[in-house]
Structures are given as C-alpha cells and as structure tokens.
Amino acid sequence: MTPSLRWMRPGLVPVVAVLCAGLVACSSGDGPSGTSSTSTLPAGLGADQLVSTRLTAVNGVDAGAASGNSLNVPKGWTAQVWADVPDARMAVWTPDGRLIVSTGKGGSLSIVTPGSGDRGPRVAQLASGLSDPQGVAMTRQGGRDILVVGEDSRITTWTYANGAISDRRVVIDNLPTGGHDSKMVAVDGDRIVYNVGSTANRSVADRTATPVRATIAQIGLDGTGNTTLAVGVRNGEGLSVAPDGTVFTAINEDDNQPYPFRDGDRFGTAVRSYINDHPNDQISRITPGTDMGWPRCVPDSRGNADLRDLGYVNDPQFNADGQALDCSRIGTTMLGLPAHSAPVGFVFTRGSRLPASLADGAIVTAHGSWNRQPPREPYVAYTPWDSATRSLGPARLVATGFQNSAGKRWGRSVDAIPGPDGSLYVTDDTAGLVYRLTPGR
User: Fold this and answer.
1) H helix intervals, 218-331
2) Biggest distance spanned by C-alpha atoms of the chain
3) Cα separation of 114 and 98, whole Å?
4) In the predicted model, is pLDDT for residue 370 greater than 90?
5) Strand order in the sheet with 91-93
6) 373: exposed, middle or buried (C-beta count within 10 Å: 0-12, 13-18, 19+)?
7) Residues 207, 200: contact at Cβ < 8 Å?
8) Which terminus of the chain has a smaller tally of CB atoms within 10 A, N or C?
9) For residue 29, which of 380, 414, 425 has the smallest C-alpha distance?
10) Cis peptide preceding 295, ω within 30 of 0
11) What is the pLDDT of residue 117?
12) What is the DSSP letter of 119?
C-alpha cells in the first residue's frame, strides 16, 4: 500500500509536508492604500527576508477581496490569485493533477482543474450536501485512488477517477460534534489518523467524557481498529505523517489562559500581557499513549527563545497543586508557535518540487485568532526536518500580509500545499480564494 499525503505529484510516490520553523517578525505588507502595516508576530521568525509583493490575478479569475492587496513572500517569488473557491479550507492534489478543496460550512467539495497556457483553472463542484467537510487526503488501495474526507461526525472514503468520485463509504460515524468539531485527516498506508477537538476553550470534563474529547485517533481504511493515540490535545487540526513514518500534529491551544506562575499576586488571574503571547500553540510527535496535558498542563516557554522542547507548568485552575496530573512526566512539546496562531494546515514537503530551502521539512498554515490585542495575524511558515534527531527545527515565515496593523483582515490563510509545478498553493476561507505562490527560478 502506498502511503498518501495531501499533496501528490502525479506519477510519483506521494509525500506529506510540514512547513514551519525559524519564524521571524515581519511587515504585513501594503494594503490598498499602499501603506505598510505592523506585524503581530514576534521577532525572530525571518520576516526581514520577506518582500511585499502585489497580488495579481490569473487570467479570468476574480481577485475579489484580494484586489489591490499584497502578500509578503520570499524575494523573487510571485503571488497570484489562482482560483475562486468560496469558503476554501483544506486541499489535496489528485494523481491526475487537479486540486480538491473542502469548504467546511459550505457543505461541499470543489475540484479545480488547471487551465492551459495563461488561462485560469476551471472550478466545479465535486460533491454537495456534506456536513462540514474539512480534512481531505488521497491514498491508493486495491488499484484504486481513494479520497478520504473528514465531516463533522464521520470519516468517509470515495473512489476517485478522472475528476469524479463514486462509491461513498462511511469508515466511522457518530463521532462527537459541537465545540471544535472539524475533523482533519492524514493517511498513512492503510490507516487514517484523525482528530476529535475539545468541546470548549477550557474544559477539564473533556478528559473523562464518553467518548473522551481533545484526542488524536486512528482507524483502518476498512473501518476496523479504531484506537485513541493521544489525549489532552485541545484542537489538533494540523495532522501529517513525517518522513520517519510517525504522526505529527499542530495544536490550537487555550485562549484566556490564567497566569500559571507563582511569582507574585497574579497567579490564576487574567493578565493581558501574558494572554497575548501564551500559551504557545504546539507542534509535536504523537505516539500511542501521548498526553499533551490540556487543560491541566500549560506549555512553558520561559528561557526557550527558539520555542523548542517546551516543558509544562501546572494550570492554576485545573491542576494548581499538580495532584491531578504530573506535568513534569508527560514529556515535552517539540516546537512551539506564537500563541493564538491557530495552526490548521500542516504538511511535510519531502519529495515535492519546492526549492531546496523548503523541500525537506513541514509547512504550517496559521489561520490567526481573535484572542489577542491586536489579533494574531494569519501566516504560512516552514520548519526544517532534521533526519538525525527526527525532529523539526525553528520556524521561519514564508507568507504574511493578510492583516493590517489595526488587526483588520482582508483574508485568512487555512492550508498551504506544494503543487506539482513547484509552487505553493494557499487556501483562504475569508476571501474565498486559492493563491499560487511561485518561487523565483
């Protein structure tokens, strides 16, 4: 069985990509007025390496909300509005070079067929009447190409051929809904990895609910062997399989985290300066039995400027004395991201046609979130893979510019995947667009 990733180069073994390490603060780009805005991302993410680049539209494509705006991308890259896909969420390439895009609340899947020459792509509806379709992945089984889709309460598979899908089958149904109920999927061999998000921002009851919430699980493509891999994962929307075959997740952490340190009279209170930049969102390996601690343990980035190998501190509301869970014994977070990044897209890039600087690591796409003053801006970042240590390194920014200094957004990145042409394709559910970011040659 060939493992599948969310991008697929026709004719080659598919591979997953994860993109984020070594981020650096940067300008958010020029808005329609041409004035530069100030980033809400911390220094050290490589923003100084990005250049404000005016978005153009591929022939025949309406730029919509992106009209007159710019993105910050590496020097020499071009930035284009490539396709109009309302509510565009997660994306996957088919073996014959088309892009399938989920629409979440739109209840449908779109299929984008690239145009010839300078003509824009053709967008058509692939499936409708779905319930909040989010995660999408491709794999191959029994000589057939299989599309895997995560809906709010179920995981389904379809046979894909020549721009159409058929033979819908429910792999698992009656999954928990409500709260963070977007079901993301990654496929590796004959197993599907999926997430079950938390019911709320902070809910200790999720850890003992039936079924348990805030988990990462796996199930066979045939619907057998449903198993929980990890608990205490507040909202592990980013899912991918690393080059070493292990599962990784990118996690949306708490909003309004009570101050967890006993260094004065602030313990357990709402401290805006702390809430703005804590707790860090997380990227980490998931193995059977993993506990990411939520909401009893809080990622602790003190003394770790590069946000690597983060330990935990007790949550002051749910675990003040450490009796409910020993936070020193649950391991560490491999890599932290700026708090309130809301990472959604996450894909490993080995085997892609991206330039060498991005070709062996992971791409993480941050949706940005509200619980900050000003809100954390959306971004796309890359983190390199270290084969010797089987780990991801510090993230660096690849694309920003969706938000101005006042926190107003014209767009919001969701997913970013390498294309068969060596470009990076980014979905935007606010502007309803797909962008093509192309490296200089």
Assistant:
1) 272-277
2) 65
3) 7
4) no
5) 91-93, 99-102, 109-113, 122-127
6) exposed
7) no
8) C
9) 380
10) yes
11) 82
12) B
What are the tokens at 127?
A: 């499936």
Find out whether 126 and 149 touch, Cβ atoms under 8 Å: no
Distance CA 185, CA 147 (A): 11
Alpha-carbon radius of gyration of the chain: 20
Look at strands 18-19 and 361-366 and give their pairing.
Answer: parallel
At 183, phi and psi to the nearest 5? -95, 115
- What is the distance between the alpha carbons of residues 208 and 192, in angstroms, rounded to a whole number? 24
Distances (CA, A) of 150 to 109, 192, 211, 302: 11, 10, 18, 37
CB atoms near residue 375 (< 10 Å): 18
Pair of tokens at residue 397: 């920014």
Tell me the CA distances in angstroms from 51 to 47, 67, 93, 354, one per residue in order. Answer: 9, 18, 28, 18
Structure tokens at 29: 């780009």
Q: Could you tell me which residues come within 8 angstroms of residue 441 by beta carbon, excluding any fewer than 6 positions away?
A: none
User: Average pLDDT for residues 14-41, to the nearest whole number?
Assistant: 40
Which H/E stretch holds residue 57? Answer: strand 56-57
403 within 8 A of 42, measured Cβ to Cβ:
no
Distance (Å, whole) CA 233 – CA 297: 11
Q: Coil, strand or helix: which one is 135? A: coil
Q: How far apart (Å, rounded) are the C-alpha atoms in residues 104 and 135?
A: 9
Instruction: Express as a percent the part of the chain with pLDDT over 90.
Output: 85
The span from the CA of 249 to the CA of 402, in Å, is: 24
Please tell me the distance from the alpha carbon of residue 125 to that of residue 151, in angstroms, as a whole number: 17
List the Cα angle 336/36/412 in 5-degree steps: 50
Cα distance between residue 370 and residue 60, in whole Å: 34
